[in-house]
Design goal:
The complex is a heterotrimer of chains A (360), B (302) and C (375). Chain A is of the alpha+beta class. Helix content of chain A is 49%, strand content 14%. Chain A has a single domain (42-335, 343-359), classed as Cytochrome-c3 Hydrogenase, chain B, CATH 1.10.645.10. Chain A is built from 15 helices and eight strands. In chain A, strands 1-2-3 form a three-stranded antiparallel beta sheet. In chain A, helix 3 (68-83) runs antiparallel to helix 4 (89-117) and helix 6 (164-186) runs antiparallel to helix 11 (250-274). Chain A is globular and about 65 Å long. Chain B is built from seven helices and 13 strands. Chain B has three domains: 53-143, Alpha-Beta Plaits; 150-219, Alpha-Beta Plaits (2-Layer Sandwich); 222-302, 2-Layer Sandwich (Alpha-Beta Plaits). Chain B has helices spanning 14-30, 65-69, 103-107, 167-171, 202-206, 239-243, 285-289; strands at residues 53-55, 75-82, 86-94, 113-115, 130-131, 151-157, 177-181, 188-192, 212-218, 228-229, 249-253, 271-275, 295-296. The longest helix of chain C is centred in the N-terminal third of the chain and has 38 residues, at 47-84. The radius of gyration of chain C is 23 Å and the shape is globular. Chain C is built from 14 helices and no strands. The two termini of chain C are 30 Å apart. In chain C, helix 1 packs antiparallel against helix 2. Chain C folds into two domains: 4-45; 117-372, no CATH class. Classes of the chains: A alpha+beta (360), B alpha+beta (302), C mainly alpha (375). At the B-C interface, helix 1 of B face helix 3 of C.
Chain lengths: 360, 302, 375
Amino acid sequence: MAEMWINMGPQHPMTHGLWNLRVKVDGETIVDAEPEVGYLHRGIEKICEGLTYPQIIPITDRLCYGSSLTWSHLYCQSVEDLMGVEVPERAEYIRVMAIEMQRIASHLMWLAAYAGDLGMSVGFTYTMRDREVFVDLLQALTGSRLTYNYPRIGGVAHDLPPNFDRDSIRAVDYMEGRLKEYEDLFEGSKIFMMRNVGIGLLRKEDALNLGVTGPSLRASGVSYDLRKDMPYSVYPEMDFEVATLDDGDCYARYRVRMDEMWESCKIVRQALQKMPKGRWRMVSPRNAPAGTGLGRVEDPRGEAVMYVVGDGSDKPYRLKIRSPIFVTVSAAPKILVGYKLADVVAIMGGLDMCIGENDR
Amino acid sequence: MAERKLPKSTGIVLKPMKRTGKQLLRTLIFGKPNTVLYPEQKLDLPQIYRGKQVLDFKKCIGCGNCVTVCPNDCMWLEKVDDPELGKIERPGVDIGRCLFCGLCAEVCPTVALHMSTAYELANSERGKLRLSPMDIRDDAFGSTFVEERQKRMLPTLDLSKCTGCEKCAGECPEMCIAMMPVDRTDRNKPEINLAKCKSHAKCVAVCPEKALTMTEVYESYFEMPEPKLILDNCSGCGACARKCPSNAIYMLEMPGTEKTLKGGKKGKPKKRAVFVFEKCVGCGRCYQACKFDAIEIPGVEK
Amino acid sequence: MNLFEFCYGILHWLVDLVNNLWYWLGDFLPWYFGDFFTAVGDFAASDGHLTFMTILLESVVIIVVALINVLNFLWIFRKLSGRILDFYGPYYVGYRIGGWLQNLADGMKLFIKEIIVPTKADRLGFLLAPVIFVASSLVILSVIPLSVNFGLSTNESGEYVSAGALFALAAFSIAPFAILLAGWSSNNKYTLIGGMRSAAQMMSYEIPLILCAASVFLLAGSFNFVDIVDAQHDVWFLIPLFIGFVVFLICLIAEVEIIPFDLPEAEAELVEGWTTEYGGMRFGLFYMTTAVRSYAGGALATAFFLGGWQGPSFIPDEIWFLIKAYIVYTVFMWLTWSVPRVRIDQMLGLGWKRLLPLAMLNLLIAAALKSGGWF
């Protein structure tokens, strides 16, 4: 059969959003691939230049539907760096607990989408059902189900609701039981292992050269996690491990994310234990001084960076967002070539695409 | 690369089938599926859920801070003719554009605006998504709501009654009232340091003119811009005082500025605006109302 | 009384009833018209005509029964998927009977939709493919009896066509042609790949399937369904030919294209595979035919390995047969909703490298059993 280009996207079940992956296939084998992004460009960086600092927080929630809390936390962190605002310790603990819950929810959503890609509806519904537990918790904490708008410059918007500690501990216990079930469901099935082991090999050098970060990098054998390597917030106080594997295939990426969920459960427990009493929010200044602020956090998808330039007024002069997925997607041609057409969904699903933050 | 240990999948597909079989028994025989059958059953929403806005007309002062803070410009102030409250200005919401971020409720200085848990807001006409103040009015909602923002009882000053007797300053145990002279007037104005105030209410008790009253003030996490008067430009027209939603601007006479009229008689003295910053909510309406560039707010352009 | 005699009796009674009226009418007419009336009446009452009409009536009965079963299958498909995946499944339409009417409602909705043919599609092939697919699948049902008495392909004395099982397997394997036609004529890259995959998959899984069936034929000594089922009177072929049963089931899953092997319509990578361009009732036909083929597959597995309609006699034979077919389908569904989809090369590897040797082994076992004289 002659070689032909296939457009997988912008409307395609594989894409999880609006982007286009053009693959050149020879029969079923991929000989070339070319990701095209930008279909979901909303100009968020430009929008932010016209809004005051508190107004930007709900906009940054819209960056990623999977982990909106992480992004607004990142924004607040960078603006606090710019303004020099001290955050109360209780607020830091609440933030860490909330973003770890968000990490679990995000990874569960990834697992759901991944299972759906592999044709495993059961994985989709079970993980989405269990994600609901954490969404409900975050809803009780923040007041919304998807776009939380919870962190504020100088703290968080609300204190913990009553009985939140008890509910979170229960949810984490439930989650740890469920993770065992997922291991049975996914790794217990020979077909899942056939689809994952040795597929989508991303070598360590390639991953480093292409700037891949997050679980995809850690699955390639580089132990690089901003929570450990460049600790922010109260992560130095937490006792957890960075999940790293050497293999760099789809199975390793899956495994790293599963291990991260275990670690996140641990962090949520510790944060609830160590949480001090006190204020959870300080008065935030209206105007930022002229200068720059930088925030770097470990997003569920990789290293996310925000760079804010203030000019003395109540609006940022410039807000630069570094999206981890925008960089990771550039690795697509490197990973895809040589595998089968059906592996495209496994490989690209394994990278955990989120087009909202990618196109901004 | 070391050979890695893969989990054994001895049963090929039996392990997942065991799990799904258990789930089948759970949903078919021993219980029900996890689904919430939406129109019949609904989720329990927490108190702080952000749904449709609800406005308490009596608490609202019409300052328009909610309009200013809205990131999507989906709120506006509308003139309402209320039989009870007279001619007032109250905010309306375009639900179709609303982000449901809750900043409007958070910034409200008198906690008149709340986010209720109503979320079924869809409509077949786009025009009906523009909710006027009357549509979001619910004066009783605040009583059903446990307010999270802390409130304090603080003395507020009615400058028109104040004679500048300095009794309150002497009485305050925290020493947080200072009598400051107002420029070009012969009056002294008590300035209350609200951060230090512990709500002893002794100043209120001692005030002979009842110019000080204790009122509930909710703590705000937003630093609001403070207006600044450029005295030379002020013509004493009083537009700012009429516009101020929280009555924080008073017009005081400046003695010695009387014009000599034709008959040698002296006319009325010129007036100037005086801000009582404890009452200011930072809405910036005085700044917009001033036609003589006498009021400026640092960092804000018109 | 078997189905043929039953239908024949009904028709005979009807023809007699009409003929009485007819001849009575003829008496009022002049002789040349009367003769014509008599000739027509005699033809209607003749044995050849009655037999022909009986066969038509039988087909209608069989197809109606099959379609009711197909509706049940679709209902099981949706309800069981819901319960395994932790949601309700069909619920509101036909609330009292567990949402059973949902499929009828969906069918109605599909009926009133426009049939859209893509501009650059091969119009004839595009419109013909569903017809071939449906017809080739329904014709399988013609030879599968639900019991000794409830079957279509009999002669007047009630004996079944001797190569019925062979015919069923042959009709089962026409479908790849229709799918390839549908995939190619849609003029779309996804459908083309889906069609090619389908052809490769069905051809490679046809061989182990037929080898397993061959071992059954060897033990039963006949291609006739009734003989095959009668041969299982003492022991079901499930027990001596367990390997064959498992291989047969796996091949059936591949043949009816449900999830571990639904590569031709793989939703994630090929959108909907070869049905991408079809809409309205033509898609509905594909959807229904998948259930028809599941039904036929379950019936084949039941007849070959599970003792057909044999069972304690407090339940009618036909119901036994259906119960077994339903159980086979339920197991299919259980498997379907538990596992992901395999890749095409892995799937072909599985077919050629694992299932084919196993099927050969199974055939050897059958041959040994036969030559050993146990069957």
